[in-house]
Specification:
Chains A, B: Its EC number is 1.3.99.41. Chains A, B: Involved in the assimilation of dimethylsulphoniopropionate (DMSP), an important compound in the fixation of carbon in marine phytoplankton, by mediating the conversion of 3-(methylthio)propanoyl-CoA (MMPA-CoA) to 3-(methylthio)acryloyl-CoA (MTA-CoA). The structure is a homodimer of 593-residue chains. The first copy, chain A, is an alpha+beta fold. Among the domains of chain A are: 132 residues, Butyryl-Coa Dehydrogenase, subunit A, domain 1, CATH 1.10.540.10; 123 residues, Butyryl-CoA Dehydrogenase, subunit A, domain 2; 132 residues. Chain A has 17 helices and 11 strands. In chain A, the strands form 3 sheets. In chain A, strands 4-5-11-7-6 form a 5-stranded mixed β-barrel. A two-stranded antiparallel ribbon of chain A has the order 1-2. In chain A, helix 2 packs parallel to helix 4, helix 4 runs antiparallel to helix 8 and helix 7 runs antiparallel to helix 10. The mean pLDDT of chain A is 97. The interface between A and B is large, with 93 and 93 residues.
């Protein structure tokens, strides 16, 4: 049975040594003193390791069960959900007005990583609710907010997002679900939605579905899509629950992983719905929560990679097999533990340097979302908007690869369900797909975000990297060589790729899009390179100051050196591929595949 | 429900246009005329697509069931196994003396690819039998061969290989299973073996277990391991089945994939066993079949990648989503099919260029095994021995990645079991683990094979590449630029890596082993690059001669150009990593992970 140790020390390092949150001007950050955040993280950590992690395998094994229209969650989920609610964790970064604690999103994200790592399928019930509540918060009327938010913030009621239909996912313009106005301000919603996470279950009194549908007679395609609130039970004026609405679960999907979450086919048969936001502006309303949701999914990539890594380390230290090539490390044992072998080290270092780099990247992203929302910082908003597809696409692709590496450490036992490593890869697999498949993220990055506001945000990113290097070079040759030089080279590769797109994408956009996946990955590497340079600097400074745990900082530097030497150079390969253009990619006729 | 189209045309292309099998001096190859091999491949292809492929999902869904010591295979497996036996497919490349058809291994491999692609879990029952029969053929006495081989060649009896124990897999020196001599030439075998594929099932009258065990009083560690034949039912002198032997199935494992194959815990409680080969030379006997088995597992990596690719192409052509960035490709349809999008193309081209390159690599390897076995060609034996870990490790790592890419094309549907794409990845995952986890393959390559016979075989490989380039350069600038130049650069990278190992591995072997995984992958890329250059040349020549299907050859060239431009340059990244040495890999103390 796998275990989970909350990475609270590492989260604290990123918040305080690297991001220096208390020095930020973002409102609310001044309260984030180390003792305060430590208390929150420790408390959340205890809950995740003691309550949620032990249920992870249970959820996988039992899955959800549909009987007579009722979906039953796995044994223990209900009780655990009660504990999560009691602790106030569901409203951590929600407004006090609706029962939340009004903490910055960066804290919600740090806590969220631990929740996701301990039990991704379970955490999705509250995650989807958070997303739906955010949309109501951003686009709802005061009456809607008052009606739904208090119960959603507390997770007495949960939420869902209904986008996909059998014939359309990415291309929502093809949507068929209809909304017919009833003359009283409400609509009748009719259609079928699929892949609805937490669509129906037994852990909440009510479920608030946010549903995309087309109002009859509206514009064609994506421009005619509106967003609706469709409660499972109607809500009376006094807030009590009324009649059952015309929305039912058709079936639950049998999936590769996240079995503990009920993924439902939802049928809307003239269900009563209420417009959320403006008519025909449903995509805009949906995108508000989608950016946040995409950062959250990127975090899932990190989370599964980290818990899988932790267990790989335990196994690599326990399992005796072979001898170190440089001579027996433990001559008193019948064999040495796996961890003495260089190729096992290589794999563990890949995982460790990814997880820690990704953690910094995610929290940096979350801090920019806070700056955008709490301080109306347009630059932060632009930059995090640029980086959102990178956070989602790169961290989930890489996160999945890392779970596969962790599973591999277990040899044959990695393939046996009982050991739990298979579940990490099966659960991690979905993150590459949902909230926009990673190919769509790459398309969003290269086709839209790169040129947004005249390319201002990508230029700002390059300037940030350049300035960081300039400000910190020349003081410590070893640091320059190990950290700053590789970062400079990788950033230059990324700029060359951008230049290639500019010069060739005009003539033929395929030259840009054929390199979109490579660009997303090289951008991710440069971001993690930047994070490692910042973490390396923070660790170096702490060592020089003689504060804190010296071994922790030395390990941080060593892990960073690994990333810079072994992972960051991937940018050169991505650049080579990008510069080979679209010709070989698009050469075949459809019939020749 | 996924489908499978046997790649008979492509197999014929490799056998005849590329390998030119009939021109080979290997005995038996002179019979392999195109019409003859086409007849075999077509017949096998029909069986695999019509009978085995439809059972693939059934096997995954139902799995195997253990009841009162009896293992039941999924519905339909028994009937399908009868058809495979009736067709004589189980003894295709086995000696006529024992009921086989004595075909070269290269034909067995070509047929085997289709069997594995259609239904990997099912095909393992005969695959393990083939491996066990090969070991008896190589090391058994005449009496043993006569007793076991006829029924194993026909698969009336199936076989297993018993190596792993709960506490040891790779490091078999730690083995605890004991063999006690009985004075009559037989032994009593006692111990527990795990992960025994096809260990117990209902499709054969008898199961012949090959079991590694230590004879009491023998040498310590790996040098005291012997190999034994342990039949499930004793075989009487007249060949009839006698008493049940003391071997029983303890449980069947719940695995991530290959559910249709029964993976068993086998308990030997004083079971009667017969020494196969010499005392204490069990590892040598096991390795005879292990090389063959490893090539077979490499083939599984290709097979799953190919069938997954085929279905990804179907979906990419069917699923309408979005519009081509260069303007609607199908303005009469509500949206364009996925296949118009450059990033979808990129993924499909990755898959296609891998599968076709891997197919050539596998068949080239098989032809060298034939040359070694049938013509006693020592050079071929040395080269295929060098390449075996590359075939196994590279093709299964990459093959798995390709199934993940194919699954990704399906978006959300790729995660739903009903669509079958999840099974391809779950089944493909095991190939990276069994028959020596891929880290062990990389260790075998760098730690043993590279320096074998004074490095003679790797030198021969480099000479082969050099000569191929020299012999074919200068006639066609486009071919030189697209194929030969990239091959030259990649081969140079590989040589530089070998040089780095020589110069630094002496001082500290960790400098070599920390790069072993990268070396295995760069070697694989160079091999596929060589295959693509050879296939490109064959296609170019056929086009020039005006023979055959011009579109097929043009497609082959275009696919090759893609591989050379987009995949082969990965060697440079691997070299960078290798040349960064072991310092960053080994920097951490065990407690710091």
């Amino acid at each position: 049975m796998p275990s989970y140790t909350p990475p609270t020390k590492d989260l604290q390092f990123v918040l305080h040594d690297v991001l220096k949150v208390t020095e930020s001007k973002t409102p609310g950050y001044e309260e984030l003193e180390p003792d305060f955040t430590a208390a929150i993280l420790d408390e959340a950590g205890k809950l995740t390791s003691a309550v949620l992690a032990p249920l992870n395998a249970v959820g996988d094994r039992e899955g959800c069960r549909l009987e007579n229209g009722v979906v039953y969650t796995p044994k223990g989920f209900k009780e655990a959900f009660e504990k999560v609610k009691e602790g106030g964790w569901t409203g951590l970064d929600m407004p006090e007005q609706y029962g939340g604690q009004n903490m910055p999103y960066v804290i919600g994200t740090a806590v969220g990583e631990m929740f996701s790592a301990a039990n991704q399928a379970f955490t999705m019930y509250q995650g989807l609710t958070h997303g739906a509540a955010s949309a109501i918060l951003a686009h709802g009327t005061d009456a809607q907010k008052d009606t739904y938010l208090p119960n959603m913030v507390s997770c007495e009621w949960t939420g869902t997002m209904n986008l996909t239909e059998p014939h359309c996912g990415t291309d929502l313009g093809l949507m068929r679900t209809k909304a017919a106005p009833q003359g009283d301000g409400s609509f009748k919603i009719t259609g079928q939605k699929i892949f609805i996470s937490s669509g129906e279950h037994d852990m909440a009194d009510n479920i608030i579905h946010l549903v995309l549908a087309k109002i009859e007679g509206g514009p064609e395609g994506i421009k005619g899509v509106s967003l609706f609130i469709v409660p499972k039970f109607m809500v009376n004026e006094d807030g009590s629950l009324g009649e059952r609405n015309g929305v039912t679960v058709g079936s639950i999907e049998e999936k590769m992983g996240i079995h503990g979450n009920s993924t439902c086919v939802m049928n809307y048969d003239g269900a009563t719905g209420y417009l959320l936001g403006e008519e025909h502006k449903g995509m805009r309303a949906m995108f508000t929560m989608m950016n946040e949701a995409r950062v959250g999914v990127g975090m899932q990539g990190l989370a599964q990679a980290d818990v899988a890594y932790q267990n790989a380390v335990i196994y690599a230290n326990d399992r005796l097999q072979g001898r170190a090539v440089t001579g027996a490390a433990y001559p008193d044992k019948p064999a040495d533990p796996l961890i003495v072998h260089p190729d096992i080290r290589r794999s563990l270092m890949d995982q460790k340097s990814f997880a820690e780099g990704a953690r910094a990247f995610i929290l940096w992203g979350a801090s920019m979302i806070d700056a955008a929302h709490r301080a109306d910082d347009k630059d932060a908003d632009g930059l995090v908007s640029l980086l959102t597809p990178v956070i989602k696409g790169f961290l989930t692709d890489q996160g999945y690869d890392m779970t596969v590496k962790a599973q591999q450490i277990y040899g044959g036992h990695g393939y046996i369900e009982e050991w739990g490593m298979s579940q990490f890869t099966r659960d991690a697999r979905i993150a590459m797909i949902y909230e926009g498949a990673n190919g769509v993220q790459a398309l969003d990055l290269v086709g839209r975000k790169l040129a947004q506001d005249g390319g201002k945000h990508v230029m700002a990113f390059f300037d940030m990297v350049k300035n960081f290097i300039k400000d910190n070079a020349g003081e410590d040759t070893e640091f320059d060589t190990a950290f700053l030089d590789p970062l400079k080279a990788a950033s230059k590769d990324l700029q060359s790729a951008g230049m290639y797109f500019m010069q060739n994408g005009m003539k033929n956009p395929n030259h840009a899009l054929a390199g979109s996946n490579d660009f997303m990955h090289m951008f991710g590497h440069v971001c993690l390179g930047l994070m490692w340079a910042k973490m390396g600097l923070a660790a170096k400074n702490a060592l020089a100051a003689g504060t804190g745990d010296a071994q922790f900082y030395k390990t941080k530097l060593a892990t960073g050196r690994y990333y810079m030497a072994r992972q960051l150079p991937a940018t050169a390969l991505h650049l080579t591929r990008i510069q080979s253009g679209a010709d070989t990619v698009m050469a075949l006729a459809e019939a020749d595949f």
